[in-house]
Design brief:
alpha+beta; Glutamine Phosphoribosylpyrophosphate, subunit 1, domain 1; Rossmann fold; 4 domains; six-stranded antiparallel beta sheet
């Protein structure tokens, strides 16, 4: 909720700074009516729309400093903006490293024309920026930046392509041409009309840590307690509860800290194979929670889709935003003002199923190349390729995946790659984009960890693409729309540092996920929770699409409108809806959702539909 925005101009503007800032800040408080604070000079200004404990502003001469969030500076939360300005004069951009917690910061010196922007280490908060001929515009949301009259409103075709590939638009791109976003742990230094981005922090792994299990467990529990305590603060706090290890752990820690029954919130689906409510109930009983449940229906989804699209800064295709929104709304009605989210636990402690799958595939790399090339592969794909026995089929599938280098191997099941971009996208649109752009981004991120274990390189990739660009955006969007604040204790700076000290084996032991985490919480979490497989708030969209006329009508209308934009081929949309979805509702339903949410966003925020020639 809420946020920060501002600008600096190299020339006198026709419109008063305060008036510009009020216009930019209006979208920031559209859901919670947060109070607005403004500091404006002749050619620059900054505004923060946030509750009193989440905004700090300071002005001294030509220097303006604004911080959104509830961080500490060298462990102290008092006079944040003023003290940050003092530290910046001594340390420059590296002063950002002294801020701990979730934040977005802006520092501007009107006299020198310098601007410093930065966000926190995990990307809980965001920062959009755009350089224009007259200066620099910035905001924690695209809607606020677009409210400035000089903002460029043309859409970026590459960003749309990236959305169809990732189901979100990863930073540093934005949906708008020329607009960019900061990466987690990154700062922007603007001076004399030139931009420079740099890292003030990146995770540093200590793979040879020799600490004993007992020492690590003690550190972990202590860090977890302090992280939850800091996340709770003085707010009326509850917790998302899916019944997984992360949300269950936070519910238990919230009970311990508050000394009373924690308020927990779960979403269920009355569809076989999707409802995990029983695990949430197990955790709630175990920790004596004041537990609240809601079963979401297809009608609820139909009602939520336009709201989520309208609230999104750019197209966003994670359908789990719907149940998260209803969870947040339930908590707000119950009087909760802040929810704890368990996001980050999978990435920090080795909980994603693909970690184990990729470890199995990587074993093939240890087979001598001569044996692979002379014996195994000719056998499997030569003579063996004509034999359709089950065991040989599985062996061929294994080798086909294993020979693909990382991180491209992670994209084996990517929907756009599976369908084929040429079969999905309009030829004219496809000619305007770089089809290799997404995998190039993944390569750049993955190979920055050269020399690290595979699990830690995958963790680095997931912290950026799975977490910062997807899961955090999903939960933050849902909570903003639902009217509550959200905090992520697993992403505290201390927890990030603790995770970096775990050995690769502590995260993934053979194919056993969360090896240290589950051992450390044995006796704390119910055995059934420790044994369960990850599920989360997966939405039975494909199933409902076949059953509910209202939802199906919304989808058909959206996709018919999308056809006329000449982004996605009309014949692909017809094949998707007429045959593919009925063949495998869950798998192909994902692409239906992604395309529908693209059109829903474009219909509210994009350019008019281009008519067919």
């Amino acid at each position: 909720m809420s946020g920060l925005c501002g600008y600096i101009s190299i020339s006198d503007g026709a419109e008063p700074a305060r008036q510009l800032l009020v216009g930019m800040a209006e979208p920031l408080s559209r859901f919670d009516s947060s109070p607005l604070r403004i500091e404006a000079a002749e050619r620059c200004g900054v505004a923060v729309a946030a509750a009193a404990d989440s905004a700090s502003l300071h002005r001294e001469g030509s220097l303006l400093v604004a911080i959104w969030g509830r961080p500490t500076l060298n462990g102290n939360a008092d006079n944040l903006a003023e003290r940050f300005g003092v530290l910046w004069r001594r340390q420059g951009a590296q002063a950002c490293a002294a801020l701990s917690g979730a934040f977005a910061v802006c520092l501007m010196d009107e006299q020198s024309g310098q601007v410093l922007l930065a966000i926190d280490r995990s990307g809980v908060h965001t920062m959009h920026y755009q350089q224009v001929a007259q200066g620099l515009l910035f905001a924690s949301s695209a809607a606020a930046l677009q409210a400035h009259p000089l903002a460029v409103s043309a859409l970026d075709p590459q960003a749309i392509y990236n959305y169809l590939y990732f189901h979100t638009i990863p930073a540093p791109r934005s949906i708008y041409r020329g607009q960019r976003r900061l990466l987690p742990g990154e700062y922007l230094d603007y001076r004399q009309g030139k931009l420079h981005c740099g890292e003030y922090w990146k995770i540093a792994y200590h793979e040879d840590s020799q600490l004993s299990f007992a020492e690590l467990r003690q550190q972990f529990l202590s860090t977890l307690e302090s992280s939850v305590r800091q996340a709770v603060g003085t707010a009326s706090t509850g917790a998302f509860l899916s019944g997984g290890t992360d949300s269950s752990t936070l519910a238990g820690m919230l009970a311990s800290i508050s000394g009373s029954a924690p308020r927990t919130y779960s979403i269920g689906f009355d569809v076989a194979g999707y409802d995990e409510m029983e695990y949430a109930r197990i955790a709630a009983r175990h920790f004596g929670a004041d537990h609240h449940e809601l079963y979401v229906t297809a009608s609820d989804v139909t009602a939520a889709i336009p709201r989520i699209a309208a609230a999104s800064d750019q197209p966003f295709g994670n359908s789990s935003a719907v149940p998260a929104y209803y969870c947040a709304n339930m908590a707000r009605i119950d009087g909760v003002s802040r929810l704890l989210g368990g996001d980050g636990g999978d990435e920090l402690f080795g909980g994603n199923e693909r970690y184990a799958h990729q470890a199995v595939l990587s074993r093939y790399e240890r087979v001598p190349s001569a044996l692979r090339q002379v014996a195994l592969e000719p056998l499997l794909f030569g003579l063996g390729g004509k034999v359709n026995l089950g065991l040989l089929r599985k062996a061929r599938s294994y080798v086909e995946q294993a020979v693909v280098p990382m991180p491209a191997r992670l994209e084996t099941y990517n929907l756009l790659r599976r369908y084929g971009a040429g079969d999905v996208l309009d030829p004219g649109f496809l000619a305007s984009v770089d089809q290799d752009g997404p995998i190039g981004q993944l390569n750049d991120c993955y190979w920055k960890g050269r020399g690290l274990s595979q699990i830690n390189r995958m963790q680095t990739l997931d912290l950026r693409y799975t977490l910062a660009d997807n899961d955090l955006r999903k939960v933050s969007l849902a909570c903003e729309l639902g009217g509550v604040d959200v905090a992520f204790p697993f992403l505290s700076d201390d927890m990030l540092a603790f995770s970096s000290r775990l050995s690769p084996r502590d995260k993934l032991n053979g194919t056993r996920l969360r090896y240290f985490f589950k051992r450390a919480l044995r006796g704390y979490l119910p055995p059934a929770i420790l044994r369960k497989k990850k599920h989360g708030f997966g939405l039975p969209f494909g199933h409902w699409l076949q059953q509910d006329a209202g939802l199906r009508g919304l989808v058909f209308d959206s996709l018919n409108d999308l056809k006329r934009r000449r982004i996605v081929r009309a014949d692909f949309i017809d094949r998707l809806m007429r045959t593919l979805v009925s063949e495998h509702p869950a798998y192909h339903g994902t692409m239906v959702w992604v395309l529908m949410m693209l059109e829903q966003w474009l219909a509210r925020s994009g350019p008019p539909v281009r008519p067919q020639p």
